[in-house]
Specification:
642 residues; Rossmann fold; 3 domains; seven-stranded mixed sheet; six-stranded mixed sheet; 17% strand; globular; glutaminase activity; C-N_Hydrolase; NAD
Amino acid sequence: MLNIAMAQMKVSPGHPDKNAERMLQMIAEAKQKKADVIIFPEMCIPGYLLGDTWEQPAFLRDCESYGADIIRAAEGIVILFGNVAIDWEKKNNDGRVRKYNALFCAQNGRLIAPDNMPYPFIIKTLLPNYREFDDTRHFFSLQKLAREIGTTAERLLSPLTLDIHGERYRIGGLLCEDGWSDDYSLTPLTELNRHHDIDFFVNISASPYTLGKNEKRNRVFGAEAKAAHTPLFYVNNIGLQNNGKTIYTFDGSSTVYNANGRVISVCPAYEETLCCTELAHIDALPEVTQEHAPSIAHIYRALTYGIREFLAGIHMKKVVIGISGGIDSAVAAALYAKIISPENLLLVNMPSVFNSKTTRSLSEQLAENLGCQYMIVPIQESVDLTKEQLETLPVTNLADKSAHHLHVSSFVMENIQARDRSARVLAGAAAAFGGGFTCNANKAETTVGYSTLYGDQSGFLAALADLWKHQVYELAHYLNDTIYAREVIPQGIIDIVPSAELSSAQNVDEGKGDPIRYPYHDYLFRSFIERWQKATPEDLLTWYTQGTVEENLGCSPGLVQKYFPTAQAFIEDLERWWNLFSGMAIAKRIQAPPILAVSRRAYGFDHREAQDGPYYTRKYRELKAKLLYHSDTLPTGASPSF
């Protein structure tokens, strides 16, 4: 009777020493539980998202060395684990040493080779090269190896054959993307099942969390197990990994699928654990009832886990948050208050003459509700001093000794306020407090650069920058109703119009706020980045002529007519935001803090950008000309048709 342990471990990227040490501990634990086989995640020794650390031969040698420690530990137990495999005699296409993303199997202190592989390990067949994944930059795939040695990947794909307790078992080994093969010409699991008698499949993964991904994986992997009529063990890691600008949580959620494709065991998300399953009993085990928590509950868990792990990783124990009386900073404060102790959380309100008594009062009420530290630092005096200095101190042309003075416009004054708050007050307060200060931007603001460089865009982490504004509001309600079970975020903050309060034109008491109409623009901006086939102005005008804008964006019906009574108004709005999204906002995003990812497409390395400026296709220009011509000849409220 085969007892199989799934080792859902926390992987420390770039630290093979720590990972190998933890693996040895879990191997000892598995032996105590009488496990016959223990399965670790993909790249569990080096970590997965390492940037160009893969180009360091010394690091690669260390990964090999720690891998050898794990192989030696395979006495009385079979160990399957992920590591980088190196062929020091061959090169990748970039001229560097040959590297494979590999699955190793060790028994009795030595490696067990797959039946048809030229190496004593399984090589990842399908290398993802989209979103945050960059496998083809560093690793050689099984398909490329097959071409190199004059055969096919189908022939090289082969099981691991093991003798355990006198019984022969054939294991179909897969690495992460090998199971997500819908858009590839080769399906590794199908090929293994077609040519070999497989007892069970193993998919070792390093799969970052994305909202809705687990549900999709259960559909895909469940269907694969059912089609093969063979159990499948999916083993994923937990922890936090990044590629510089984008931070990813790994939730684990390791799962066992029976031969009918049903989920019969799931490891708890974001918890390091060892889950054991008897192979012979899999088909008799009851199906696990899947948790149907609302999406915002999953987002909350990913954010709090990610923030906690990020703070631990940079050894930061104290946090400063600038609070304005608005929704974004309030949600950020309520999140951090669940992660660090009240004495280590400092909320700072920084009013100017444009901040209403309403928002000042709401800020103080929020701090009282959270029970954390609070201070008020008025900025008007320093802002006025900056304006006075810039306008009265001469600018001298040293070539001819002539002098002139700068003029500070009302728009520049808005920027000065934002920068005074962050670069002077929050940066100084964080240094004095012994911590760092947060960036509270949401995804809508990040999309169009509705923030100030070196001002409110600054901070050590942008924890909310992958949430649209409506998700921030949803999170506020979830924090009040479920997490705290009381009103910590004052209802007034939820009800008040979103506003930067940087001028009299943004007076919240008069209902004046941001230029972004979030019920519509959240979804417009989302179409620019999160659609797999990304939308452009051409798509938007096509939908506009068809009357299907709201349907394609996913926003509430009737918003286009409500906000844009004419084609000209619709086009002006579209071009305003497209110009910002593909213009100055890119420069701002490049300089933004790292973003904690939860969506199907986050800014940073997940959405690679070039500063090329806005572009409008030929068809867009043709549609625009027709719309504007017809709008001049149509009655008010009538829709054009071409």
